[in-house]
Amino acid sequence: MSFSDNSALVQTDWLAEHLADPGLRILDCTWHHVSTNLDGRTQYRGRHLPGAVHFDIDHVCDPSSPLPHMLPSPADFAKKVGLLGIGSEDRIVVYDRASGGSAAARVWWMFRVFGHENVAVLDGGLSKWSKEKLPAEMTPVRPEPRAFEAAYNSALVRGLDDMSANLATRAEQIVDVREAAQFAGVKDDVFASQRRGHIPGSVNVPCRDLLDPASGALLPNEALAARFAAAGIASTSRSSWPAAPASPRDLRRSRSISSATRLRLFMTEDGRNGHPHRRRRPLQPEAPLHEHSTFATSHDRGRQRI
Predict the structure, then answer these.
(1) Which CATH number fits domain 155-298: 3.10.20.90, 3.40.250.10, 3.40.605.10, 3.30.2010.10?
(2) CA Rg, the chain, in Å?
(3) Tag placement on the chain: N or C end, fewer CB within 10 Å?
(4) Where does the record place the Rhodanese domain (predicted)?
């Protein structure tokens, strides 16, 4: 069972019709920074999509890294995902409560990095689902563990050395997802100790500019194409995504990578094609992500900002 056309997004009406499909697994990826006094797991227990289990990006990560939400080893990812009742042959839908689905996009990318392409994000997330008065439940799901195989795909990841080398070669287009004032260096990020500005040669596409403010869903194809073109992003060039926050609440230390993966998702799904459930061909199907984000080097005064 797989999503048609390798779609990275599914619509609420499609999911409502397929909730009972065998082999379909739904993950509630809701996450909040500690400063918000909100807890994704608590919210999951209060309301979630039927059959959904909670995926905690604070738990499925590299525990040895000083940076938050770094990728775990393939073996650790496979073990933790298997405990959520997900098998290698399953079709996965991820969602969260945030507009644009930052955490859900992060989880979507993680599955693809570890070789599982049969995964999609619910367009508009729980917010759109709730506005449409679709079913939800409160009882936590306790799945039976299953076997999941993970194989790391390095083509979807860029490290600090890769980004440093790209400063000279400019082989890949760098896209910064923060708000314009932060990109321009006229406004501090949440952690004021970080240097202002942006990676040399990068272009700015704030995540919020790609969303319908009413529904939180992705804008139509024409609007997306116009925004990418205005930023100078060419569909024929390779792009990398330096992770960074899209709003004051997207604290870079913890949410930066989720915001970048959200833009990575938007570039993969570049608009509707007259079909109510699916999206058309990817604009940048294999655009990699700078996993460490600008947080890793913005505190290192001896290194050029990357």
Answers:
(1) 3.40.250.10
(2) 18
(3) N
(4) 20-138, 168-233
